[in-house]
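lol forgot to send this yesterday, sorry. C-alpha cells for the thing we talked abt
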C-alpha cells in the first residue's frame, strides 16, 4: 500500500477544495484530522482529510492544508469552523494531534513521513503489509 500526503496549500482558499474533496468522496472518507503546532512563534493548524485506499491500486491519499490556519483554540476563525462543520455534516469526529512543525525537518517529505508514522502507530491508518 502507498500512503502519501497531497498538499493543497496552506489553508487559505484551498480549504474549500479540501472540503469539496471530502464531500465528493464521503463514501471513501476514513478520517478528519487537525494537526496543531507552533510554527515561527504562531499557533497554527493543518487540516487533513484521509480517504480509504483505492481498490485496486491500494493508494491511500492524505489531503492536507499545511500550517496556514490559526489554531482555533487560540484564535477562532472561519476556515477552521468550515472544517468542523464538514465533520458534523459527514458524521465524523475530528482527531486532534499535537505535532512538530514542518520547519523542524530538513525537507517537507521527511515531515510527511513522520506524520504517517504517527498515524500508523496510533492505528489511524493501516500499516504497510
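and heres what i got for the seq, position by position
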Amino acid at each position: 500500500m502507498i500512503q502519501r500526503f497531497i498538499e493543497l496549500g496552506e489553508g487559505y482558499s484551498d480549504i474549500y477544495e479540501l472540503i469539496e474533496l471530502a464531500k465528493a468522496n464521503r463514501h471513501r472518507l476514513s478520517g478528519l484530522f487537525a494537526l496543531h503546532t507552533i510554527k515561527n512563534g504562531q499557533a497554527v493548524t493543518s487540516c487533513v482529510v484521509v480517504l480509504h485506499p483505492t481498490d485496486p491500486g491500494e493508494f491511500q491519499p492524505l489531503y492536507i492544508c499545511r500550517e496556514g490556519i490559526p489554531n482555533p483554540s487560540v484564535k477562532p476563525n472561519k476556515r477552521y469552523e468550515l472544517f468542523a462543520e464538514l465533520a458534523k455534516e459527514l458524521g465524523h469526529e475530528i482527531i486532534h494531534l499535537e505535532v512538530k512543525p514542518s520547519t523542524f525537518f530538513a525537507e517537507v517529505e521527511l515531515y510527511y513521513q513522520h506524520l504517517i508514522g504517527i498515524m500508523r502507530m496510533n492505528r489511524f491508518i493501516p500499516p504497510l503489509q
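The first strand starts at residue 2 and ends at 9. anyway ping me if u want another try
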